[in-house]
Protein backbone atom coordinates (compact mmCIF):
# COMPACT_ATOMS: atom_id res chain seq x y z
CA UNK A 1 0.00 0.00 0.00
CA UNK A 2 1.10 3.58 -0.68
CA UNK A 3 -0.99 4.94 2.19
CA UNK A 4 -2.84 3.60 5.21
CA UNK A 5 -5.90 5.91 5.28
CA UNK A 6 -6.74 8.72 2.86
CA UNK A 7 -9.30 11.34 3.88
CA UNK A 8 -10.72 13.28 0.95
CA UNK A 9 -11.79 16.75 2.10
CA UNK A 10 -10.36 19.04 4.79
CA UNK A 11 -13.64 20.43 6.05
CA UNK A 12 -14.56 19.91 9.69
CA UNK A 13 -15.88 16.37 9.01
CA UNK A 14 -12.72 15.18 7.27
CA UNK A 15 -10.43 16.80 9.82
CA UNK A 16 -12.38 15.27 12.71
CA UNK A 17 -12.06 11.84 11.07
CA UNK A 18 -8.33 12.29 10.46
CA UNK A 19 -7.80 13.54 14.00
CA UNK A 20 -9.47 10.47 15.52
CA UNK A 21 -7.59 8.06 13.26
CA UNK A 22 -4.24 9.71 14.03
CA UNK A 23 -4.98 9.47 17.76
CA UNK A 24 -5.63 5.75 17.26
CA UNK A 25 -2.19 5.32 15.70
CA UNK A 26 -3.21 5.16 12.05
CA UNK A 27 -1.21 6.89 9.33
CA UNK A 28 -3.52 9.40 7.70
CA UNK A 29 -3.15 11.79 4.80
CA UNK A 30 -5.79 14.42 4.04
CA UNK A 31 -6.32 15.59 0.45
CA UNK A 32 -8.06 18.92 -0.10
CA UNK A 33 -9.00 20.47 -3.44
CA UNK A 34 -8.94 24.05 -2.09
CA UNK A 35 -5.83 25.90 -0.96
CA UNK A 36 -7.07 26.11 2.64
CA UNK A 37 -8.77 23.97 5.28
CA UNK A 38 -12.22 24.49 6.78
CA UNK A 39 -14.57 23.81 3.87
CA UNK A 40 -17.90 25.34 4.85
CA UNK A 41 -16.35 26.53 8.13
CA UNK A 42 -13.68 28.76 6.60
CA UNK A 43 -12.76 32.36 7.42
CA UNK A 44 -11.19 34.88 5.06
CA UNK A 45 -9.06 37.68 6.52
CA UNK A 46 -8.98 40.88 4.51
CA UNK A 47 -8.13 44.50 5.41
CA UNK A 48 -8.55 43.79 9.12
CA UNK A 49 -11.90 42.03 8.69
CA UNK A 50 -12.51 38.36 9.57
CA UNK A 51 -15.13 37.13 7.12
CA UNK A 52 -16.87 33.84 7.92
CA UNK A 53 -17.66 32.47 4.49
CA UNK A 54 -19.78 29.55 5.71
CA UNK A 55 -21.03 28.56 9.16
CA UNK A 56 -21.73 31.44 11.54
CA UNK A 57 -22.11 30.02 15.07
CA UNK A 58 -22.20 27.02 17.40
CA UNK A 59 -24.40 26.40 20.43
CA UNK A 60 -23.76 25.24 23.96
CA UNK A 61 -26.64 22.83 23.33
CA UNK A 62 -26.72 20.09 20.72
CA UNK A 63 -22.97 20.08 19.97
CA UNK A 64 -21.48 17.43 22.33
CA UNK A 65 -18.92 16.06 19.85
CA UNK A 66 -17.79 19.55 18.93
CA UNK A 67 -17.27 20.63 22.52
CA UNK A 68 -15.38 17.42 23.33
CA UNK A 69 -13.02 18.11 20.44
CA UNK A 70 -12.58 21.74 21.46
CA UNK A 71 -11.63 20.72 25.01
CA UNK A 72 -9.13 18.24 23.62
CA UNK A 73 -7.65 20.90 21.32
CA UNK A 74 -7.51 23.52 24.07
CA UNK A 75 -9.83 25.90 22.20
CA UNK A 76 -11.47 27.89 24.98
CA UNK A 77 -12.27 31.29 23.51
CA UNK A 78 -15.79 30.67 22.20
CA UNK A 79 -17.83 33.52 23.74
CA UNK A 80 -21.58 33.91 23.68
CA UNK A 81 -22.89 36.15 20.97
CA UNK A 82 -25.33 37.72 23.40
CA UNK A 83 -27.49 39.38 20.76
CA UNK A 84 -31.00 38.64 19.58
CA UNK A 85 -32.34 37.53 16.21
CA UNK A 86 -35.22 39.18 14.44
CA UNK A 87 -37.73 38.73 11.62
CA UNK A 88 -38.61 41.46 9.13
CA UNK A 89 -42.35 42.04 8.89
CA UNK A 90 -44.41 44.95 7.60
CA UNK A 91 -41.47 47.31 7.30
CA UNK A 92 -39.74 46.73 10.62
CA UNK A 93 -37.74 44.27 12.73
CA UNK A 94 -39.64 41.97 15.10
CA UNK A 95 -37.21 40.76 17.77
CA UNK A 96 -37.27 37.41 19.53
CA UNK A 97 -36.72 34.76 16.85
CA UNK A 98 -35.32 31.60 18.54
CA UNK A 99 -35.33 33.47 21.88
CA UNK A 100 -37.51 33.17 24.99
CA UNK A 101 -38.60 36.78 24.37
CA UNK A 102 -40.40 35.52 21.27
CA UNK A 103 -42.88 33.66 23.45
CA UNK A 104 -44.03 37.05 24.72
CA UNK A 105 -43.59 39.32 21.71
CA UNK A 106 -44.40 36.69 19.09
CA UNK A 107 -41.33 37.58 16.99
CA UNK A 108 -43.67 38.62 14.21
CA UNK A 109 -46.23 35.85 14.81
CA UNK A 110 -49.80 36.50 15.96
CA UNK A 111 -51.10 34.57 18.97
CA UNK A 112 -53.02 32.08 16.81
CA UNK A 113 -49.88 31.17 14.85
CA UNK A 114 -47.86 30.71 18.05
CA UNK A 115 -50.49 28.39 19.47
CA UNK A 116 -50.67 26.45 16.22
CA UNK A 117 -46.91 25.91 16.14
CA UNK A 118 -46.92 24.75 19.75
CA UNK A 119 -49.69 22.25 18.96
CA UNK A 120 -47.94 21.08 15.79
CA UNK A 121 -44.69 20.27 17.59
CA UNK A 122 -46.29 18.74 20.69
CA UNK A 123 -46.39 14.96 20.75
CA UNK A 124 -43.72 14.37 18.12
CA UNK A 125 -41.76 12.25 20.58
CA UNK A 126 -37.99 11.95 20.39
CA UNK A 127 -36.35 14.14 17.76
CA UNK A 128 -32.89 12.87 16.85
CA UNK A 129 -30.52 14.75 14.56
CA UNK A 130 -28.59 11.49 14.07
CA UNK A 131 -31.72 9.62 12.92
CA UNK A 132 -34.23 12.21 11.68
CA UNK A 133 -36.15 9.57 9.70
CA UNK A 134 -37.32 8.05 13.02
CA UNK A 135 -39.27 11.18 13.99
CA UNK A 136 -43.06 11.11 14.12
CA UNK A 137 -42.98 14.08 11.79
CA UNK A 138 -42.52 11.44 9.12
CA UNK A 139 -41.49 12.39 5.62
CA UNK A 140 -43.69 15.44 5.15
CA UNK A 141 -42.03 18.50 3.66
CA UNK A 142 -41.80 21.64 5.77
CA UNK A 143 -44.65 23.16 3.74
CA UNK A 144 -46.83 20.07 4.22
CA UNK A 145 -46.11 20.01 7.94
CA UNK A 146 -47.21 23.65 8.24
CA UNK A 147 -50.21 23.43 5.88
CA UNK A 148 -52.92 22.58 8.48
CA UNK A 149 -51.95 25.56 10.61
CA UNK A 150 -52.05 29.34 10.51
CA UNK A 151 -50.35 30.55 7.32
CA UNK A 152 -47.87 32.63 9.31
CA UNK A 153 -46.35 29.47 10.83
CA UNK A 154 -44.86 28.83 7.41
CA UNK A 155 -44.45 32.37 6.07
CA UNK A 156 -42.98 34.13 9.12
CA UNK A 157 -41.33 31.28 11.05
CA UNK A 158 -40.48 28.03 9.28
CA UNK A 159 -39.75 29.38 5.81
CA UNK A 160 -37.46 32.23 6.94
CA UNK A 161 -35.54 29.83 9.20
CA UNK A 162 -35.09 26.94 6.75
CA UNK A 163 -34.35 29.24 3.79
CA UNK A 164 -32.08 31.60 5.72
CA UNK A 165 -30.08 29.05 7.70
CA UNK A 166 -30.11 26.02 5.37
CA UNK A 167 -30.91 27.47 1.94
CA UNK A 168 -33.95 25.15 1.77
CA UNK A 169 -37.15 25.59 -0.14
CA UNK A 170 -39.86 24.40 2.27
CA UNK A 171 -41.78 22.71 -0.54
CA UNK A 172 -38.82 20.36 -1.19
CA UNK A 173 -37.16 19.71 2.17
CA UNK A 174 -38.38 17.40 4.93
CA UNK A 175 -39.69 18.70 8.23
CA UNK A 176 -38.16 16.01 10.46
CA UNK A 177 -34.49 17.15 10.22
CA UNK A 178 -35.57 20.78 10.67
CA UNK A 179 -37.61 20.04 13.79
CA UNK A 180 -34.87 17.84 15.22
CA UNK A 181 -32.38 20.69 14.80
CA UNK A 182 -34.68 23.21 16.48
CA UNK A 183 -35.05 20.84 19.42
CA UNK A 184 -31.31 20.11 19.63
CA UNK A 185 -29.65 23.52 19.46
CA UNK A 186 -31.99 25.44 21.72
CA UNK A 187 -32.58 29.18 21.92
CA UNK A 188 -30.31 31.88 20.52
CA UNK A 189 -29.25 32.72 24.08
CA UNK A 190 -27.03 29.58 23.90
CA UNK A 191 -25.33 30.50 20.62
CA UNK A 192 -21.61 31.24 20.47
CA UNK A 193 -18.93 32.01 17.89
CA UNK A 194 -15.19 31.47 17.79
CA UNK A 195 -12.85 34.35 18.53
CA UNK A 196 -10.65 34.71 15.47
CA UNK A 197 -13.12 33.24 12.98
CA UNK A 198 -15.24 30.16 12.47
CA UNK A 199 -12.26 28.21 11.09
CA UNK A 200 -10.43 28.17 14.44
CA UNK A 201 -11.41 24.57 15.16
CA UNK A 202 -10.53 23.43 11.63
CA UNK A 203 -7.10 25.05 11.80
CA UNK A 204 -6.42 23.54 15.23
CA UNK A 205 -7.37 20.07 13.97
CA UNK A 206 -5.28 20.44 10.81
CA UNK A 207 -2.09 21.72 12.46
CA UNK A 208 -0.58 18.33 13.45
CA UNK A 209 -2.03 16.40 10.48
CA UNK A 210 -0.55 15.58 7.07
CA UNK A 211 -2.77 17.78 4.89
CA UNK A 212 -2.18 18.18 1.14
CA UNK A 213 -4.03 21.28 -0.14
CA UNK A 214 -4.72 22.11 -3.78
CA UNK A 215 -5.06 18.41 -4.55
CA UNK A 216 -8.35 17.72 -6.36
CA UNK A 217 -8.93 13.96 -6.25
CA UNK A 218 -10.38 12.83 -9.59
CA UNK A 219 -11.44 9.25 -8.88
CA UNK A 220 -11.87 6.71 -6.09
CA UNK A 221 -12.14 3.01 -6.95
CA UNK A 222 -12.79 0.33 -4.32
CA UNK A 223 -11.07 -3.04 -4.66
CA UNK A 224 -10.89 -6.15 -2.46
CA UNK A 225 -9.34 -4.89 0.77
CA UNK A 226 -7.97 -1.69 -0.73
CA UNK A 227 -8.96 1.42 -2.67
CA UNK A 228 -7.25 3.39 -5.40
CA UNK A 229 -7.39 7.16 -5.54
CA UNK A 230 -6.32 9.20 -8.56
CA UNK A 231 -5.25 12.83 -8.50
CA UNK A 232 -2.77 15.32 -9.96
CA UNK A 233 0.20 13.34 -8.61
CA UNK A 234 -0.88 10.00 -10.06
CA UNK A 235 -2.44 7.03 -8.29
CA UNK A 236 -2.27 5.83 -4.68
CA UNK A 237 -3.29 2.46 -3.28
CA UNK A 238 -4.71 2.86 0.21
CA UNK A 239 -6.20 0.56 2.84
CA UNK A 240 -9.19 2.82 3.44
CA UNK A 241 -10.72 6.05 2.19
CA UNK A 242 -13.02 8.48 3.99
CA UNK A 243 -14.95 10.63 1.53
CA UNK A 244 -15.55 13.79 3.55
CA UNK A 245 -17.06 15.81 0.72
CA UNK A 246 -20.68 16.71 -0.19
CA UNK A 247 -22.75 13.77 -1.38
CA UNK A 248 -22.91 14.91 -5.05
CA UNK A 249 -19.11 15.21 -5.07
CA UNK A 250 -18.72 11.79 -3.44
CA UNK A 251 -21.02 10.29 -6.06
CA UNK A 252 -18.99 11.85 -8.87
CA UNK A 253 -15.64 10.65 -7.45
CA UNK A 254 -16.56 7.15 -6.30
CA UNK A 255 -16.62 4.87 -9.34
CA UNK A 256 -18.19 1.72 -7.87
CA UNK A 257 -20.24 2.31 -4.70
CA UNK A 258 -22.54 -0.50 -3.51
CA UNK A 259 -26.12 -0.26 -4.74
CA UNK A 260 -27.67 0.82 -1.42
CA UNK A 261 -25.07 3.58 -1.08
CA UNK A 262 -25.56 4.68 -4.68
CA UNK A 263 -29.31 5.07 -4.18
CA UNK A 264 -28.83 7.40 -1.22
CA UNK A 265 -26.00 9.35 -2.85
CA UNK A 266 -28.15 9.90 -5.93
CA UNK A 267 -31.05 11.14 -3.77
CA UNK A 268 -28.93 13.35 -1.49
CA UNK A 269 -29.12 16.76 -3.19
CA UNK A 270 -27.59 19.98 -1.91
CA UNK A 271 -28.81 23.57 -2.02
CA UNK A 272 -26.49 26.38 -3.17
CA UNK A 273 -25.47 29.20 -0.86
CA UNK A 274 -24.44 32.69 -2.00
CA UNK A 275 -23.22 35.32 0.47
CA UNK A 276 -22.11 38.90 -0.09
CA UNK A 277 -20.00 40.42 2.67
CA UNK A 278 -19.94 44.23 2.86
CA UNK A 279 -17.14 46.08 4.65
CA UNK A 280 -18.47 49.41 5.93
CA UNK A 281 -16.93 52.73 6.93
CA UNK A 282 -19.01 52.86 10.12
CA UNK A 283 -20.57 50.46 12.62
CA UNK A 284 -24.39 50.07 12.46
CA UNK A 285 -25.99 49.24 15.81
CA UNK A 286 -29.37 47.58 15.13
CA UNK A 287 -31.45 45.80 17.78
CA UNK A 288 -30.49 42.36 16.42
CA UNK A 289 -27.33 40.75 15.06
CA UNK A 290 -29.19 38.57 12.58
CA UNK A 291 -32.31 39.45 10.62
CA UNK A 292 -34.30 36.71 8.88
CA UNK A 293 -36.24 38.00 5.87
CA UNK A 294 -39.31 35.99 4.73
CA UNK A 295 -39.65 35.44 0.99
CA UNK A 296 -43.00 37.23 1.16
CA UNK A 297 -41.02 40.34 2.19
CA UNK A 298 -38.11 40.08 -0.27
CA UNK A 299 -37.54 38.20 -3.53
CA UNK A 300 -33.76 38.02 -3.19
CA UNK A 301 -32.58 38.37 0.45
CA UNK A 302 -32.95 35.66 3.11
CA UNK A 303 -30.67 36.89 5.89
CA UNK A 304 -28.90 40.09 6.89
CA UNK A 305 -26.20 39.45 9.47
CA UNK A 306 -24.28 42.11 11.38
CA UNK A 307 -20.98 40.30 11.91
CA UNK A 308 -19.41 43.10 13.92
CA UNK A 309 -22.11 42.50 16.55
CA UNK A 310 -21.54 38.74 16.46
CA UNK A 311 -17.98 39.24 17.67
CA UNK A 312 -15.92 42.46 17.88
CA UNK A 313 -12.92 40.93 16.11
CA UNK A 314 -14.84 40.52 12.86
CA UNK A 315 -14.26 44.18 11.96
CA UNK A 316 -11.71 46.90 12.86
CA UNK A 317 -12.72 49.40 15.54
CA UNK A 318 -15.45 51.72 14.36
CA UNK A 319 -16.06 49.72 11.18
CA UNK A 320 -18.94 47.44 10.27
CA UNK A 321 -19.24 44.09 8.52
CA UNK A 322 -22.63 43.09 7.12
CA UNK A 323 -23.32 39.76 5.40
CA UNK A 324 -26.29 39.35 3.08
CA UNK A 325 -27.38 35.81 2.18
CA UNK A 326 -29.30 35.32 -1.03
CA UNK A 327 -32.77 33.80 -1.12
CA UNK A 328 -32.67 30.17 -2.38
CA UNK A 329 -34.90 31.19 -5.30
CA UNK A 330 -32.13 33.38 -6.75
CA UNK A 331 -29.01 31.68 -5.35
CA UNK A 332 -28.76 29.17 -8.19
CA UNK A 333 -28.65 31.93 -10.83
CA UNK A 334 -26.10 33.86 -8.75
CA UNK A 335 -23.66 30.94 -8.76
CA UNK A 336 -22.59 31.88 -12.29
CA UNK A 337 -23.18 35.65 -12.14
CA UNK A 338 -20.21 38.05 -11.95
CA UNK A 339 -19.36 39.30 -8.46
CA UNK A 340 -20.31 42.89 -9.26
CA UNK A 341 -23.80 41.81 -10.32
CA UNK A 342 -24.28 39.84 -7.10
CA UNK A 343 -23.01 42.73 -4.99
CA UNK A 344 -25.21 45.25 -6.80
CA UNK A 345 -28.38 43.15 -6.57
CA UNK A 346 -28.02 42.15 -2.91
CA UNK A 347 -26.86 45.60 -1.74
CA UNK A 348 -29.79 47.31 -3.46
CA UNK A 349 -32.31 44.99 -1.83
CA UNK A 350 -30.57 45.01 1.58
CA UNK A 351 -30.78 48.82 1.62
CA UNK A 352 -34.36 48.36 2.84
CA UNK A 353 -33.13 46.59 5.96
CA UNK A 354 -29.87 48.52 6.45
CA UNK A 355 -30.52 52.12 5.39
CA UNK A 356 -27.42 53.78 3.94
CA UNK A 357 -25.70 50.44 3.27
CA UNK A 358 -24.52 51.18 -0.28
CA UNK A 359 -23.05 54.55 0.58
CA UNK A 360 -21.10 53.03 3.50
CA UNK A 361 -19.49 50.15 1.58
CA UNK A 362 -15.69 50.34 1.28
CA UNK A 363 -15.22 46.82 -0.06
CA UNK A 364 -17.08 43.59 -0.66
CA UNK A 365 -16.47 39.85 -0.93
CA UNK A 366 -18.78 37.33 -2.61
CA UNK A 367 -18.62 33.70 -1.59
CA UNK A 368 -20.49 30.86 -3.25
CA UNK A 369 -21.03 27.25 -2.25
CA UNK A 370 -22.50 25.21 -5.08
CA UNK A 371 -23.05 22.50 -2.48
CA UNK A 372 -24.10 24.67 0.43
CA UNK A 373 -26.13 22.37 2.67
CA UNK A 374 -27.85 18.98 2.33
CA UNK A 375 -31.39 19.50 1.15
CA UNK A 376 -32.93 16.61 3.16
CA UNK A 377 -35.73 15.76 0.76
CA UNK A 378 -38.34 13.16 1.76
CA UNK A 379 -36.82 10.81 -0.84
CA UNK A 380 -33.35 11.04 0.72
CA UNK A 381 -34.84 10.69 4.20
CA UNK A 382 -36.55 7.45 3.18
CA UNK A 383 -33.22 5.97 2.03
CA UNK A 384 -31.01 7.23 4.85
CA UNK A 385 -31.57 4.39 7.31
CA UNK A 386 -30.53 1.67 4.85
CA UNK A 387 -27.51 3.72 3.81
CA UNK A 388 -26.38 4.30 7.40
CA UNK A 389 -26.83 0.66 8.44
CA UNK A 390 -24.48 -0.52 5.68
CA UNK A 391 -21.57 1.83 6.32
CA UNK A 392 -18.15 0.40 7.05
CA UNK A 393 -16.54 -0.62 3.77
CA UNK A 394 -13.15 0.19 2.28
CA UNK A 395 -14.66 3.52 1.26
CA UNK A 396 -16.56 5.33 4.03
CA UNK A 397 -18.22 8.73 4.32
CA UNK A 398 -18.27 11.78 6.58
CA UNK A 399 -20.30 14.99 6.41
CA UNK A 400 -23.47 16.57 7.72
CA UNK A 401 -25.35 14.95 4.82
CA UNK A 402 -24.74 11.47 6.28
CA UNK A 403 -27.51 12.21 8.81
CA UNK A 404 -29.26 14.88 6.70
CA UNK A 405 -28.71 17.35 9.54
CA UNK A 406 -27.31 20.61 8.14
CA UNK A 407 -25.12 21.81 10.98
CA UNK A 408 -21.45 21.46 11.88
CA UNK A 409 -22.03 19.14 14.85
CA UNK A 410 -23.43 16.52 12.46
CA UNK A 411 -20.26 16.84 10.38
CA UNK A 412 -18.01 16.38 13.42
CA UNK A 413 -20.12 13.47 14.67
CA UNK A 414 -20.01 11.74 11.28
CA UNK A 415 -16.24 12.22 11.02
CA UNK A 416 -15.66 10.60 14.37
CA UNK A 417 -18.04 7.74 13.54
CA UNK A 418 -16.32 7.11 10.18
CA UNK A 419 -12.94 7.01 11.94
CA UNK A 420 -14.24 4.42 14.41
CA UNK A 421 -15.52 2.22 11.57
CA UNK A 422 -12.25 2.48 9.63
CA UNK A 423 -10.16 1.70 12.70
CA UNK A 424 -12.36 -1.30 13.52
CA UNK A 425 -10.93 -3.00 10.42
CA UNK A 426 -7.46 -4.47 10.95
CA UNK A 427 -4.91 -2.78 8.66
CA UNK A 428 -3.07 -6.10 8.33
CA UNK A 429 -5.88 -8.49 7.42
CA UNK A 430 -8.75 -6.28 6.31
CA UNK A 431 -10.96 -8.09 8.84
CA UNK A 432 -13.02 -6.38 11.47
CA UNK A 433 -11.31 -6.19 14.85
CA UNK A 434 -12.81 -8.21 17.68
CA UNK A 435 -13.56 -6.17 20.78
CA UNK A 436 -14.02 -7.65 24.23
Automatic annotation (TrEMBL):
Residue ranges occupied by any Amine oxidase domain in the UniProt entry: 12-422
Source organism per entry reads Saccharothrix saharensis
**Gene3D superfamilies noted in UniProt:** FAD/NAD(P)-binding domain
Kindly give the InterPro entries that the UniProt entry links to this protein: Amino_oxidase (IPR002937), FAD/NAD-bd_sf (IPR036188), Zeta_carotene_desat/Oxidored (IPR050464)
Q: Which Pfam families match?
A: Amino_oxidase (PF01593)
Give an example GO molecular function: oxidoreductase activity
Name it: Oxygen-dependent protoporphyrinogen oxidase
Amino acid sequence: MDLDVAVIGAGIAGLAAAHELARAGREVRVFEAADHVGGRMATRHESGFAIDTGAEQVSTRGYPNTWELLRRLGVEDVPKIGRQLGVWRDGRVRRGLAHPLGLVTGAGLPVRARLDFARATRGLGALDTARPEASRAGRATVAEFCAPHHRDVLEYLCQPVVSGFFGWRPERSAAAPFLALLDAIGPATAWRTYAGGMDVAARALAAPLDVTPSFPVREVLAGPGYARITGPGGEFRVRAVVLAVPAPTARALYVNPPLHERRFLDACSFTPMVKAHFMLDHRPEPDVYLLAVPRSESPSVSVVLFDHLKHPDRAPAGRGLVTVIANPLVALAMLEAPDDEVVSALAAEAERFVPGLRAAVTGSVVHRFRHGLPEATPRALALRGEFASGLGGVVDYAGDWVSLSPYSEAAVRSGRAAAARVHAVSPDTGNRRQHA
